[in-house]
Amino acid sequence: MDLYLQQLPQQLVNGLTIGGVYALIAIGYTMVYGILFMLNFAHGEVYMIGGFAGWWALHLLSRNSIPLMNAAIVISLMLIIAMGVSGLLGIAIERFAYRPLRKAPRMNLLLSALGVSIFLQNMVLTYQGAEIRFFHVSSLIPESIRVFHIGNVVVSFMRILVISIAFMLMALLTVMVKKTKVGKAMRATAQDTEAAAFMGIDVDRIIVIVFLIGSALGGAAGTLVGLLFTQVDYYVGFQAGLKGFTAAVLGGIGNIFGAMMGGIILGLVESLATTFFPASYKDVVAFVILILVLVFRPWGLMGEKIPEKV
Amino acid sequence: MRKIFTLGFLASIIVLLLIVPSYSADVSQGIHVGNAGAFTGDAAAPCMEIFNSSQLAVDEWNERGGIQGVKIKHIMGDDAMDPAQGLNVAQKFVSDKLMYGVIGPPMSHIAQATLKIYGGANLACITTAASKPELTEQGYTHFFRVNARNDAHGPNCALFMKRQLKAKKIAVLNEKVAYCENLAKETIKALNELGITDILQDTIVGGAKDFSPVLTKVKAYNPDVLFFVATAAPDQAIGVRQTKELGIKAIFFGTEGARDKKDFIEASEGAAEGAYVYHFGPDIYSIPEAASYVKKFEGTYGALSGFGPPAYEAMNILLAAIDKAAKDGDISRNEVLECVSQTANYRGILGFPVTFDEKGDLKGGATYFFQVVGKDFKQIAVMSGK
After folding, report:
1. Which CATH class is domain A7-296?
2. pTM score, whole prediction
């Protein structure tokens, strides 16, 4: 038992980091679903391209793996570029793959999303190759502060950075949705698109903003994972997209806070499950919990029960 | 009803195509050799090294005038590490009438999935890396390997951990694929026989990029050695990096996939220093016969990791067999198969003679051990079961 207990604090740190990343990805799924009622399966690929954009920024800003300027500036630029590229990509996907189909049956939108996903994956494969890109990050952080020991727990600077950035982005989004006019318009559009349009809200613009924000957060997640785990390749979007989608459903799809909660819970469950079961069971445990939640609360942890319209 | 007939007709054609035995043909129609492997995905780097090395051998044969004056065509079949795509590649290769032999597949799980198809068509396959023992235990006569089997590597690794690394308590993490599971099993069996029973075994998911939860478990167990059994070097790089990050004191001991300067040593940015890896091939730079190959390869494709040399050797063995089978101007897959199986004491660039036993396995396979020193691997031991 002691063997288990001593692992718990470390597993909490592990789970919180990956959970923060899942949460950022889940937000993209949930925001789009909230407004368009569609599953944006291309979101995993947006995340992957965000990872590549971050890698590319780091590559341009360093020589022989040594950054050319202050590490804080390099990391900020990586994030800004990744979020910019992914955000614009999100807008383009909406404009060319989803908007023309908005009045079509839901199934067509879903197929279009799958098509975009396959297209993006293969585009990156064609232009970047299958080779894994490595983030040479060790020279970004001085050796003396690379890891911290708190009792038996080891926390690397990168983990602290990733957790802080993830939570900061989520806090910013929360403030935006709750306090600003655009946020209000987003909530109104999610509640009832037609009524929102009648009230003078430019629904098309709101949808573009939703894709911009959701995709930018996905791109940020891609770069954060790159900084943390130091690798990106054309195939990382599939697994990450699946996890982000699961987190969104767990939290209650359509609910932004649910997506955040769902991501963090999924990350924690995966890490803690590894403590008590063989590691190959971590996904089993995570999905059993998802199924249990859906059996007892089909609308997810934080989602709302929508009464059927008669 | 008509539909059923059409389906039945199509099915019988397919069955006929599958059971048609190999036939003889005039060499001048052409000679194709295949190369099956995961040329995209996580293992793309080592597999491309296999392909490029085979290509070098083909080019050399072609420069010398080919076989019976016919230029050899080298065809790539990408399975992306996916058994289903491996089956497609196998079907494509066996239905190519001019295909007389295949290098690969290098992954045990793909080799396993495709045994029946290649075997049914009597198409000789020489793998350069697939080491799961069962591959040559199923009665197929077409499958050969220039690398040793896991049941040689496993005991050798166990011996190495006990003797060289003085391990008493060991953690074994293996990826959930055929080669890794099997190697872990063979190693643990041998460790038990050597009296080491204090072992933690757990699994990792290849390509998952984050192994910290399972490594946290390893840390709590506090072993002397962490035997990290994963296919691809990038996963090994993450493994060694996160092992260091978590402050795990155990010696990191990686598998053959890790013997990759770029994707393991460079990618781990210093974390791999002092780590050990095993490989089925010796240090190619120390073998005089390999000098010309190394120079040619590195001049064209960049640094070598260790997967290339066996592929160059295998392709030369295959082409020598095809050459022998084609001497009379007539060639068939059966003839090629016969000639490959007769390979004995072939001395190429690997530093040991290649002889296939009756199962198609390499006779007297050894395991080579390396340590990461600076930016390179230093060979420190060879074990061959004793």
Report:
1. mainly alpha
2. 0.82
